[in-house]
Fold this protein.
Amino acid sequence: MMARLLHRRHAAMPDYLNTAALIEHARRAEASAPDACACTRTPLDGWQSQPLSLDEARFREIGTLLPEDDPEPTYSEYLPDGTNYWAADAPIAPRYFPYNRCGLWECSSCGRLYLRYTEGGGYFVDRRIRAVRLDLIEDVPL
């Protein structure tokens, strides 16, 4: 946690996006995204390990779903009706894990939005990515 606090003091943090802001960004992106782009070669409807073929240079960070005033957001997940973490139809609930630790990124070529975070375990680090779909965003209180 100390490293995170030091990082915040020395690096410009992206702007915090609440659920309403995420919905507005998703609405604009879905209205303007073309049918195809290089960023859609690998389906990213559900959480995936970030493909090595994904060109990092084509993405720009728009903001974060991690509130600056919350030093340790919940690890509780919101998975109603038998959905699971990996499912393409799992809800995007910004107050719940892993969304509460995500950055919102935009493809500079087509404008599609993606959520990204780094999953860390005892012996691994896995950068994960998921496409944002407006119809899956839910504003669910903790």
